[in-house]
Amino acid sequence: MTAYVFDFSQGSKDQKDLLGGKGANLAEMTNLGLPVPPGFTITTEACRAYLQEGGDPAGLAEQVSERLVALEETMERKLGDAGDPLLVSVRSGAKFSMPGMMETVLNVGLNDESVEGLARQSDDSRFAQDSYRRLLQMFGATVLGIESAVFSEALDAAKKAKGTDEDLDLDTDDLRDLVATYKQLIEEHAGRAFPQDPREQLDLAVNAVFDSWNTDRAALYRRQEQIPDDLGTAVNVQAMVFGNRGMDSGSGVAFTRDPATGNQGVYGDYLQNAQGEDVVAGIRNTVSLADMAEVDRTSHDELLEIMEKLEKHYHDMCDIEFTVEDGKLWMLQTRVGKRTPEAAFRIAGHMVDEGLIDLDEALRRVTGAQLAQLMFPRFDYSSERNLLAKGMNASPGAAVGKAVFDWATAVEWAERGEDVILVRKETSPDDLHGMVVAKGILTSRGGKTSHAAVVARGMGRTCVCGAEALDVDTKNAEFTVRGGTTIREGDVISIDGTTGEVFEGAVPVTDSAVVRWFEGDKDPEITDNPLVQAVARLVEHADQTRRLQVRTNADTGEDAARARRFGAQGIGLCRTEHMFLGERRELVEHLIIADDEAGQEKALDALLPQQRSDFLEILESMDGLPVTIRLIDPPLHEFLPDLTDLSVAMAVADVHGHRKKRQRKLLAAVQRLHEANPMLGLRGVRLGIVIPGLFTMQARAVLEAAAERIKAGGDPHPEIMIPLVGSVRELDLVKQRIMDVAADVQEEAGVAIDFSVGTMIELPRAALTADQIAGSADFFSFGTNDLTQMTWGFSRDDVEASFFSTYLEQGVFPVSPFESLDTEGVGTLVRTAAAKGREANPELHLGVCGEHGGDPASIHFFDEVGLDYVSCSPFRVPVARLEAGRSALG
Ligand code: ADP
Ligand code: MG
Ligand code: MG
User: Fold this and answer.
1) DSSP one-letter code for 876
2) Which of 101, 605, 733, 756 could bridge to 778 as Cys pair (CB 3.0-4.6 Å)?
3) Checking DSSP bridges between strand 486-488 and strand 478-481, what pairing results, if any?
C-alpha cells in the first residue's frame, strides 16, 4: 500500500518532490526543534493519483484518519469537538512555491456548535465568531467556488453599517450576524448548506486543494515560471494557532535579510490581532519587526534567534511566516526566500564574507538572467521630473507606460503594442494576466511581502507597492494623488522599483551602474557601489572557473570595442551584409546588372576599398584576438529595390514616356532574382559559387586589411567564414579561390598573415556530413538560428507571431526554440557535428554564433558538448561569462 500521508516529524527539507516545499520545510523545522504546530502532509503523489483517477486513491481516507487520530491525541482535542474543538488549517504546497496561486483554508472544524465551545474555552466570543466567519469565507471561496467578492462585499457592508473601515471595530454581535449572512450566501450561491460535519469539511478542503492545481491562474503561473504541469501539490493539515486572539496575538512574515536590496539584517511585517492571510492581503497597515519589539519583546527576540538559526541551517536567506498566540511564538512556514537580482548578488557576496558559503556556491546562487536585469537602463536622475508619490521599492527596474487599472485592459493594450503600468489598490491572483504583460506594477496598499511584490519579484517585473498617497479608484480607472494630481487611464507614468518613486509622465532612462562599471567607468560612485562590487567579484570568479570562451557578435568597430570592454575574447560573428547597404547599395546594383565580367569586376573594384576600411577598424579594435568574418549571406535581391515599388515606378515613367535603360535592366534583375522562398534560395555559399568575384573580393578586403594592420604593428587574426555550406564540395570550391587570393595578398604585401578558413554549420546536411566538411575547414561555427529554422522547417519571421503562442500553450515546446536551444532536436545535430568534426580533424575549433550563444540554458548545453566558445551580442557577453562559469561548476 502506498504511503500517502506523513507526519511532520517524518520528513525533511530534501523531500520537496513528495511533500511539496511547504511540507518539506515544515518537517525540517519540526525536526530542528522549532515551535511548529503539529500536523501532517498528504503527498503530491496522492494529488497526482487523485487528479488522474478523478477521486481519492484507495487507502488515502484511512491514512488520513489514522494521522488525524494521532494529531488529536497530541493536541488532546478532537477535530471540531463541540466542547473544546481542535481546529486545523488545510494548506496547499507544491514543489515550487506559487505565491497566492493555490488555496488554503483556515479554522477547519468550526461549526454552529464548536464555535460556542471555542468561545467558552478561549473565554472570547468575538475571537470565536471571527474565526468562524473566516472559515465560511475561505471555505465558500476555495471549496465551494463562490466569488470571494461575495463575502468581501458583505464584510464591507457590515463595516459600513457600523460606520467604520476597520475590521477590528466589528464586535461579537456584528460578527455573529456576519456568520449568519455568510451561511445564507453560501446556500444561495453554492446551492448547498455549509457542511457542519468537521471531517466532511476536512475532506472537501483537501480535495479542493488538489483541484486548485488545475485552476487557470495556477496553470498560467506555471507556464510563466516554466514549472511542469504534472507535479501536483501536497496538502498540509496543521493544528491551528490563533493570531486573532486579541492584541497579545498577531501574525507576520519576515526575511532574514532584505529581499529587495540584500542588506544584512532582518526585514519583516507584523500585524496585531490578525490571522496570517490578513498580512499579505494588506487589510490593515503592518508594523516593522523593530516596532514588534515594542509590542512583544519576548516573541520578537525568540523570532530573531530562530531566524538566525534557520539561516545558519539553510546557508541561505530564508523567508518565514509566524504567528503569536497569546504571547507564544509559532513558526508556520519557511523557505529559501525569493529575492531581487541585486539582492541575489549582494547576499551571495555577504555570505562568502560571513563564511556561510564559498565562492563557488556564491556563483551557483546567481544567474545570468539576474545579471541581465541589472544591466537594464535606470531613470536618469539628472533630468527634470515630477514626483507623484513614494511607495515601497518592491521589485527593481525603471518602467514607463500608460496607466491601466484592470488586468483585462492591460492585456488588450499590451497586445496592440503599448507599454502599460498596471495600477491597483492591491493585486490578487486574478491580476496575474495583467502583471505578465505590464512593464510595471503599482499598488497603493501592502508591503514588500504583499501579493504584488512577491509575484513581481518572481517574474522580474518592476514593482512599487504600498504607495499610500495614491487614492486608486479602479471603477473609474484613475488615481488621485493626495494633494491634487489625477492620473487617468492612458496617462503615462514612470515607476522606479529601486527607489519606490512614482513620477508623472515619461522619465528618460540611462545606463545602470553595473553597465557603467563594465564600460570601465572609474567614478568612485560606481567603483564603490556595493552592488557593482558584488557583481565584479562573481563575474571574475566565473572567469577563473570557466572553460568555455566568450566572444561577441559585432559588425562595427564600435560594437567590437564595447564588447571587448565587456570581456569578449574575440568576435565570433562579424556580418558583412551591412557593408553593402546605404550609399554602397548602388555599387551592388552595378554588380548585379553588369552585362559582362568586366562590368562585374569594375563594380567589385569599387566595393573593395570600402570593405577593407571596415575590416581595418574591426581588426584594430579586436587586436590580438580572433575575428570571425562571415562572407555575404543574404540573397542579393535584399540589396535591390522592391519588385512592386519598382514596377509601379516604371509604369509611371512609361506614362510620362521617359523610361530609362538602367531602370529597365534593374527591373529585369529584380524579376530574375525574385524568389518564392528566399531563405532557401540563392544565398550564402551558393552566391559565392555563382558570382565567384563576390567572395574573392571580400576575402581580399579582409586579408589586405590584415596585412595593413601587421605593417602598422598590429596583431590581427582574421577567420574567414563561409555561410550555408551543405556539402564539402561547396566549401572546397570557394576555399580554393580564397587560398589563391591569400597567397597573392601575402606576396604583394610581403607579410605572413595568421588567418583561417572555416564554415558555418547551419544546415542539417552539413551537421550530418560534418566529418567530410571538417577535412576542409579550420573551424565550425554553429549558426543555431538557421539550424533551428532548417531543422524545424519553419521561418522565424513567419511563425513566431502566427502560431508560437498556441504551440507554447499546448506544450509543443516549453520555450521558443529561437530563445533557448532545442537540445533534443537541434542540439542532437550540434552534438553529432561536433563529435564527427573533431574525430575527422582533431584541430578543429568549435563555436556557436547564433543568438543562443547568450542564452543561459543553451550555454550550459554548448559547454557540455565541448564547444570552444560561444558568441553573443555585446550586452550578453557578461551574462555568458557568468553562465559559462556556473556551467563549469556542474
Ligand atoms: P500561502 O502559500 O498562500 O502562503 P499558507 O498555507 O501559507 O498559504 O496559509 C495562508 C496563511 O494562513 C498564512 O499566513 C499562514 O501563515 C496562515 N496559516 C496557515 N496555517 C495556519 C495554522 N495552522 N495556524 C495559523 N495560521 C496558519
Ligand atoms: Mg504561506
Ligand atoms: Mg545563417
Assistant:
1) G
2) 756
3) antiparallel
Instruction: Spell out which residues line ligand 1, taking CB within 6 angstroms.
Output: 37, 89, 91, 100, 104, 106, 238-241, 275-277, 321, 323, 332-333
Distance of alpha carbon 95 from alpha carbon 43, whole angstroms: 11
154 within domain boundaries: yes
Give the range of the structural domain holding residue 322, as residue numbers without chain letter.
250-336
Tell which one of 118, 249, 321, 450 to mutate to probe ligand 1, the residue whose CB is within 8 A of the most ligand atoms. Answer: 321
| Domains held by the chain: number | 4
d(CA 391, CA 388): 10
Task: Identify whether 774 is part of a domain.
Answer: yes
Q: Which residue has the cell 496553470?
A: 219
Angle CA 741–743–745, to nearest 5? 65
Atom 18 of ligand 1: nearest residue by CA position: 276
Quote the pLDDT of residue 847. 98
pTM: 0.83
Counting Cα atoms < 13 Å in the Cβ hemisphere of 771 gives 6
Cell reading at 280: 499579505
Tell me the mean pLDDT in the region 47-67.
Answer: 96
Annotate 316-356 with DSSP letters as a single string: S-EEEEEEEETTEEEEEEEEEPP--HHHHHHHHHHHHHTTS
Shared domain for 473 and 553, answered yes or no, is: no
Q: By C-alpha distance, which of 235, 255, 245 is closest to 322?
A: 255
From CA 732, how far away is CA 629, in angstroms rounded?
A: 18
CATH number of the domain enclosing 565:
3.20.20.60
Question: Is the distance from CB of 714 to CB of 674 less than 8 angstroms?
Answer: no
Atom 10 (ligand 1): residue with closest C-alpha? Answer: 277
Burial class (CB in 10 A: 0-12, 13-18, 19+), 687: buried
We report the CATH number of the domain holding residue 394 as: 3.50.30.10
480 domain residue, yes or no:
yes
Spell out the residues 6+ positions from residue 151 whose beta carbon is closer than 8 angstroms to its own: 136, 137, 140, 141, 182, 185
Backbone angles phi, psi at 460, to 5 degrees: 70, 25
473 and 615 belong to one structural domain:
no
Nearest CA to ligand 1 atom 1: 100
Give domain status of residue 775, yes or no. Answer: yes
Per the CB < 8 A criterion, the answer to whether 496 and 464 are in contact is yes
Query: What pLDDT score was predicted for residue 523?
Result: 95
The pLDDT-based confidence of 658 (bands split at 50, 70, 90) is low
Reduced to 3 states, what is the DSSP secondary structure of residue 724? coil
Q: Which ligand is nearest to the CA of 280?
A: 1
Question: Taking the CB of residue 832, how many other CB atoms lie within 10 A of it?
Answer: 16
The whole-angstrom separation of Cα 100 and Cα 338 is 14
H/E segment holding residue 158: helix 148-162
d(CA 453, CA 437): 16
Stretch (H or E) spanning 759 = strand 756-761
- What is the Cα–Cα distance from 798 to 842, expressed in whole angstroms? 39
pLDDT per residue over 141-169, tens digit each? Answer: 999 999 989 999 999 999 999 998 888 89
Provide the H-helix boundaries in 354-460: 359-364, 368-374, 407-415, 432-437, 451-459
| Mutation pick for ligand 1 pocket among 36, 88, 89 (CB with most ligand atoms within 8 Å) | 89
Cα distance between residue 550 and residue 871, in whole Å: 6
**Length of the chain, please?**
890
Q: 562 and 468 in one domain?
A: no
In a shared domain, residues 795 and 866: yes
